[in-house]
Structures are given as C-alpha cells and as structure tokens.
Design brief:
This protein is an alpha/beta fold. The chain is built from 14 helices and 13 strands. The protein has one domain. InterPro entries: AB_hydrolase_fold (IPR029058), DUF900_hydrolase (IPR010297).
Length: 415
Amino acid sequence: MTGGAFKALADRFKPLLLGLPLLVTACISPVDYGAIRHADYVANGRCDPAADKGMDNGSDTAEKPFFVVTSRLPDCRANDIKLLHHRGDKVRFGRFGAPQDKLNEKGKVDGQRIPFAISNETQWWADLSKTMGNREGRVLLYVHGYRETFFSSSRDTAQIARLTNFSGPVIQYSWPSQGQLLKYAVDETNMYWDERNFRKFLTKLAQQSWTKEIVLVSHSLGARLVLPAVEFVDRNSSNADSSNISNIIMASPDVDRQDFERDIAEEILSARRVNNDRRITVYASAKDRALSLSDDVHGYPRLGNPRCFDPFKADELKAKGLPERCYAAKSRYDVPPEKSGLTIVDTTAVSQGRVGHSDYLRSAAACTDFAAVVNGERGAVKGREATHLSYVFALIPSVDDEEPDHMTICNRDRK
C-alpha cells in the first residue's frame, strides 16, 4: 500500500478511531456509587428547608440572583452545599450566583466557589412569581448539555444573563451530567431518566398565570431534554397553544436531524403555534467536532452539524457552487403560517475554540446574534448573510482587519 493510499484510509477511519475510547470507556466504566451512602448526603435539614425558613444560608438575592431547579444529588454535610453528579432523590429548588473567588486562611485566592442555597419549594415559586411580576412575566430558562458540572453550567448561566442583559429572572435547570469527556453514554442515560422531572417543571412554569413569555435556551444534549418536554406541555396545557413558550433557542443541538424534521418540528411548530409567535432558532456549525463525533457514534447527522448524509445531495450543492452543507428542512403545512417558525444560523465561518461546540458563548459574531434573538429579534438580524435557503443564515466574519475581542463582546469571565 502506498503512503498516499494509507493516509487516505487512515483519514477515512479517523472519526471511528477518535470515538473508540469514548465508546469503550463509557460502556465499561460504571458511575461509582462512592464510599458514602447517598441518604447521608441529604440527611441535614439544609437539603430540605422548611416553608417558613425560605432559603437556607439567608436569602441574599444580591449574592444569589439566579434561580435553579435540579435533579442532582446535593451534599449538605458542610455549610457550602454542593451539587454532585449523581441522581438526586427528588427535584430541588434553589438560588445561586456567579462563581466567586475562594480565599484561603491567608486571604489569597484559592479556587472559586458558587454561592448556592437550597430553597423551600413553595417559597421558591413565590419568589419567582414576585420577580417575574416585576419584569412583566418574562423568564429565561437554560438547560445545559453534556459534560457539565454545576460549576460550569452556573458559569455559563451567569454569562448568558450578562451577555443578553435579560430583563426577567434567569433559571438554570441542572440535570446530573457527569462533567467528564468519557461519560457521554452516562450523560445520555441520565438525560433520558430526567425527562419526567423536567417536563413536570416546564408544565408548571408554563401554566402559571404570571408567566407571559418563556425564552427556552438549550445547549448540546440539553435540546433532547427540551423538545419532548415542550411537546408534552403543548399536549397537556390548558392553554391550547402553549404560546408563552414562544422563543426556543438551541445551540449546537445534539438531536437527530431527521427525527427533528419528521416529528418534532411538525408538532412544536404547528401553524397555529407559529402564528402565535412560537419559533425555534438553531445554531449550527460544520466545525463542531463534538457533534461530528456524535454523528459517527449515532450513525446519522445531528441537527447542529450541517453535514450532508446524502452524498448525492452534497454533489448537487457542489455542482451549483454552494457549500456542501445540509440543514433540517422546514415543516410542510397544508396552510402555511403567516410567520416563519424555524431559523437556522450557521456559525461555521465565525467558529471559535478547539471544538467549536459553544460558538454562542465564544464567538463575538455568534454571541451578538444570540443576544439579539433572546431579546426578540428575528429574521434579518444584523451580521447575518442570506443563503440559498430562506430560513438559513450564515454569520460572516468582521470586515475589519482586527480580530474582535471575543471575550469582551461575549461578556465572558476571564478567570
């Protein structure tokens, strides 16, 4: 075999070889129960505060401005409560703040901590009601993806709040992701385990009389938790259109593209819901290495990766002088809605980072677009370039010679 032929063969099987450690390790490495009984983690009353006590460790909303709903197992043995990667015994509610410097005995920075306290559920809903009432009933609900800890997802939640300057309360839904590269299969399992918990919470949130608008943001694997939950609310809501779940944003969604086309988009983006202002915005990138690997693992393309599964389609695009990128198709309607329900934003040209899986929080152009969408803009947002598909837009690099300050524009924590 010639050197060139060997290289071609190696390139062909490279995704499989890269994915093999993930598959093997995820399949044969169980999640350790640990040396401590899970019941001992939650034995302290801090895990289940009484109704008249409100939020444990004080209700300092300045330090803990964000809301959290979690199915993670808490560790309440020490003053600083931690959320672990295990499944919890029940869903809990709390408040948290952005990461802060942790000081040692000498007053020097020694890592970071998350200001966090568990709330009584009744008090939590009362606090949320009051906050939403003061902000015209708008709420942003963020669902993280694969390989996240409570620390990393809280950091991203705080960044989203800063970046978008969202006017209402911000809620993080934290499910028991393992926070480890080689635990994808465990994360996928825990995500499916948590579907009932999340849909019950989303249903209750959507049915509150003071909830006027839910901006639902998901990243990566989190989209697979969000979409069936929205379908469930649509089927069971007293509001036939569930129109307060209006703005659904999926960043790098690890969702089967064909499943989205066939079932999900058709249900969630029905004509009447789209006419009531329901819309979905998808951020996708051909440079997303995480989703490229997920494509190979699952055998079919992901919604957030515009890979052409059909080689004949890729050839057709190439013959027309178009990029070889394939996107989810729009829903087909007997009577088309007056508005556009699906928008796909291709971030390939402005992708940032080694993996390209979080452009909406890493790329200046994508961050700017994401903030605009959260705040209600749609269609011809500044910085988008039209493509041959009416619902697909490409973000283009700045015409300036200087590279934009991605960290500053995205309001990232430099620590």
